[in-house]
Each structure stands twice: as C-alpha cells, then as structure tokens.
Amino acid sequence: MKIGFSLTVLLALTLAMGSLLAPTLAAAKDRDPLSAKETDELRDAALMPEARTKLFLSFARARLEASEKLFPDLNLQQPRPISEARGELYDFVDIIDEMDDNLDAFGERGADLRVALGAVIESAGEFQERLKKMREHCPAAVLEQVNGELEDAMEAVNDSVNSSRAMLEEQDEGKSAAKKPSSSRNLLK
Length: 189
Known about the structure:
Elements: H1 2-30, H2 36-44, H3 49-68, H4 82-108, H5 114-137, H6 140-179, H7 183-188
Helix pairs in contact: 3-4, 3-5, 4-6, 5-6
C-alpha cells in the first residue's frame, strides 16, 4: 500500500508542478524579442533587404548594449538584474536568427544581398568582440548564471557570419557568371 500511495503522491506533485510551470513556459515561448515600434519599422522595410538587415542589426546592437549594463567593468551605470540581462541576450540571439531567416528568404527570391551581407559580416566582428569582453570582465558569480546565454549569443553570431559569407560568395559567383559571355553566343558568330 505504501508504494501505491507514494506513486500517487509523486504523480500528484508532478502534475501540480507542471501546471504551475506551464504558464511561465508558455509566456517565455510567446515572448517577442521586438517591440511594437520595431515590428512596425520592419514591416515598413518588408521589401527592402538592405534596410531590413540594417534594422535587425540595430535591434541586435541595442539588446547587446542593454545586456552589457550588467557588467560594471564595461559600463559604470547601475547594473541591471541578471534575469533582465539574460533576457536581453535571449532577444539578441532571436533577432540574429530572425535576420538570418530573412536573408535566406530574400536570397531564395533572387535578391541582391551583397550590401546587406557585408553589413552583417562587418557587424559580426563588433558583436564577437563585445561578447568576448562581456565574458572576460564578468564577475565569476555572474558568469556562472549567464555563461549559457553568452555561449548561445556567440554561436548565433558565428553561425550568422558563416552563413553570410557563404551566401555572399554564392552571390558574387552568380553575378560574375551573369557577366561572362555565353558560349552559345560565340557559336552563332
């Protein structure tokens, strides 16, 4: 009887904990990293890949700046709560990922993305350096709490720059191939 009772209590506790965590997990999943104003700005630039990419980069930069305020060595303002800085880093990753998805979609439609991709590659160096400084200057107790988010942010930037470089190379090859005379034209002469 004790085993059956223990399993019943364990099951009841598991269900209770799940019901308590469900709204929190759902809210975290539904959280939009962009403000309503930022969403409107992106909507206005829906058909302009260069402008849209620059907006994504500025939004990512703003999230990175906000998360840097956690670290007194980098910013003398009042440190922000760790949970808030973690949220900014999550948003940074989401924005970088969304930017990459947008570039992929524009690329599939044949848009010339060379300028936009150049901006991504240039910004990646800045982002990598700032994330590295955050990690280096972070107090050990804080680093334990934000290390996963910093790793995710660095990985997102590295993935973004790698995919941007590959896409830029494809676009450069496509443009140079389009400029070369076709061999079929030479046969007709």
